[in-house]
Structures are given as structure tokens and as C-alpha cells.
Amino acid sequence: MKRTSKGVTMLAAIGLFSALLSATAPVASGVAATVDVQVGAPLFSDPQANGAPADGMRFYAPALTVHKGDTVAFGFEGFHTATLLPANTDADTWVEANAFGLGKPYSFVVPDPDEGADALKINSAAIFPSQLDCGAPTDPCPYDGSKVVNSGILDPSDLQTQTFAFSTRIDANPGAKITFMCLVHLAMRQSISVVADTEATTTQAEIDTYRDEKVMVDARAAGKLHASLLEGIPSSGGVVDAYAGYDGPHFSLLSFYPKKLKLTKGQTVRWHFDALTFEDHTVTLPSKKAMNIANNSFLPVCDPDGDTGTLPDEPADDTSTTLDGLCAGGAVNVEFGVDPQFGGPAGDGVASSVKDFESSGIRGSNVGISDPFEVRFTKRTKNVPFSFICVIHPFMRGKVIVR
């Protein structure tokens, strides 16, 4: 059959249109994909931060779209969790009910009733993985959308590892909207949408581009904020204002501002906690006692009969490299206790000796306490200043000189 030039042109147009469709329309490959997501960032080591003591406080990925059966692998650059909430859950409502403040099911710090009325411990539900037998790249933990899947903050199979990673396979059905968040820093959140196999998903290249751009943005912003805070904080009268940490839009500055305070006898320092979006801190003095409190916290012990029992805690096996091996009864008996003086406020608000114990207790964005903390200094210092630290972040240090 002879083709006219018009017919050839029409066939060519149809062929071009078909080629464009095949090039742009998502096609189900039948092969599950894996995407890597960086959690947090050590901004303090980035040249763009100009020496700011900053940690990145975000999941360095855009809102994700995935297919059912795809895997999300989280790599941690800091003290974080990757916690997937039940599908189609309102994150604000869930956090308020389950994680905000002290003593909730997933709060970072909870009561330890068998150790006394005011005793506290780190919440195992927050820091341990939901399942101890999965999470490796070759064996991701399943997530079907029906319940929380939590990475925890440690690798249960290797407690000595310096690089923690956690993988989860998304088995929720198309249409599911999933929030994943950090239980240590409750404002760190991002989302996953499960889409049909015929729809496009987020590529690793898109994630990597997002990560590189946002790390640079966060590092620069942290450097600028740190520099501005170093210039000084206006104060008036007998009260000197200071900050226990300071957070930016997607980062935390882990420092006191200022770190060195110069007062006249009888002046008061008012430390503020209302600039915290992600972190919690304490102001605790003297630093020697505060360090003892810090060093006596976050230590594993074995609770053989749980919170309702009366048996005392027992030492954990500090030679074990696995979570199950710390206690004879396995991970279910492992607790991470904190010093009795770790969490609550202490003192009378007057420092008349460099040995006086004064502490704000834990305050900040996750415990819901942001009231300022005041201490009046009534003794002049000579060669030994008043010294203070944050017992949560003992590298945060400062001193007060009174003339």
C-alpha cells in the first residue's frame, strides 16, 4: 500500500507522541526501591557555620513519595530517632498525647516508680527500637501503618557502633500519609505519601540535592545567629539576661549566651529557655556537682521485676555489646536510669557560695517548661568563679564572675 506524505506525517506524529508518553509516564517496575535519608547534621563541622556549635535539626529530605514495598533507610548524624507514626495520624495530636512533657508513653524521660516517688529514667519505648530483630539494610523492619515503628537511638546488635542506621519497609497501602519524627526533638518531622505503582516517587538524586542545599543553608544561618548572640544581650538594672541554648529554624546552638557573665555583688542572672524549638537544657551549678549528676545518668541497669516490683536495680553487664546481653532477662529488664537530681529544680535562687547547688531542672521545648530561671549572686569571686553546665549536654559550660 502506498503511503501518502500526509499519512507518513500522521504516523510520525503518533510515534513521537507515544515516545513522549513512554518517557514521562511512571511505569511500575515491579522492583522495590530503597532511598537513604540523613537524620540531623553536624553543622559545627561545616565551614559555613564559622565555628557555631550547631546541630542540624531536620530530616534532610523533602516530603517523600514511595511505592508500597519500598524501603526508607535512615542514617543518623546526631542523637535522634526516626519514628513512624500510625498512618493518617495528626502529628500534633499524637505528640501532645504521647510524647510531649514528662511521663507520656513515648516521652524521653519518665518516672521510675520502684526507685522512689521522684525517681526518673530514660523511656525505653523512646530509645529502644520497636523490634530488636530487624532494621538492618538487608532486613528492614516492616511498617504497615497500623502502629508506631521506632528506630530508637541505638543498634541493639552492636552497642559500640559509632554509625547507627535503621531501615524500614513501607507496607502501607497507597493513599497512606505517614509522619516520621524524632522522639528526642519533637519538632523534627517529615512525611511519606504512599502512591500507586503508576505514580512517580521521590528519587535519591532529589533527596541528595535537598540534603546538600539545606545543610549549607542551615550552617550559614547558624553561623550568623551565633555571631549575633556573641555580640551581647541587652540587660538592665540588677538583672542580667542570658540564654540556655538558642535554636534557629532548623538547627540548635548548643551553648550558653553569654558563657562568661560579669556581675556586681547582688545582681541576678535570668536564664531564658523560650528560644528553644528543638532542645531541652538545664542550668546547673556548681559544675563539679553537675558533672557528677551527668556522669551518674544514662547508665544501663537491670530491673529484674519491673516498675511494680520491689527488687532493687542490679548492675548491667558492661562488657556486653548487645542490648539483650546487658541483663540476664534480656532487653525487657534493661533500664537507663538518671541521677535523682537530674531532672528537677534545686536550690533557693541565691548563690552565696561557689559550692551552692542551684539548678533549673530540665526546661525547653519537649518538656513544656520554658519559664526563665533566676539566681542572685551574693558573694564576690576571687580566683574561683561560679561555674555552671547543662547536665543534658555537659560540654555546654559557663561561669559567673562577681566583683
Q: What is the mean pLDDT?
A: 91
Number of strands: 27
Strand order of the largest sheet: 8-10-4-1-2-14-13-16-25-22
**Radius of gyration, rounded?**
26 Å
CATH topology of the largest domain: Immunoglobulin-like
Distance between the termini: 106 Å
User: In this structure, how is the largest beta sheet organized?
Assistant: 10 strands, mixed
CATH architecture term of the largest domain: Sandwich
Percent of residues in helices: 10-25%
Number of domains: 2
Unreliable stretches, pLDDT < 50, 5 or more residues? Answer: 1-28
Summed up, the helix count is 5
Q: In one word, what is the shape?
A: globular
Structural class estimated from helices and strands: alpha+beta
Detailed description of the structure:
The longest helix is centred in the middle third of the chain and has 27 residues, at 204-230. A hairpin with a 3-residue loop joins strand 13 and strand 14 (251-257). The chain has helices spanning 5-24, 91-98, 124-127, 204-230, 287-295, and strands at 34-41, 54-60, 64-67, 71-76, 83-84, 109-111, 120-122, 141-143, 149-150, 165-170, 177-181, 189-195, 239-247, 251-257, 260-263, 268-272, 280-281, 284-285, 299-302, 314-315, 334-337, 350-351, 358-359, 363-364, 373-377, 386-389, 397-402. The strands form six sheets. Strands 8-10-4-1-2-14-13-16-25-22 form a ten-stranded mixed beta sheet, covered by helices on one side. The chain has two domains: 34-222, Immunoglobulin-like, CATH 2.60.40; 232-298 and 338-402, Sandwich (Immunoglobulin-like), CATH 2.60.40. The chain contains five helices and 27 strands. The protein is of the alpha+beta class. The termini are far apart.
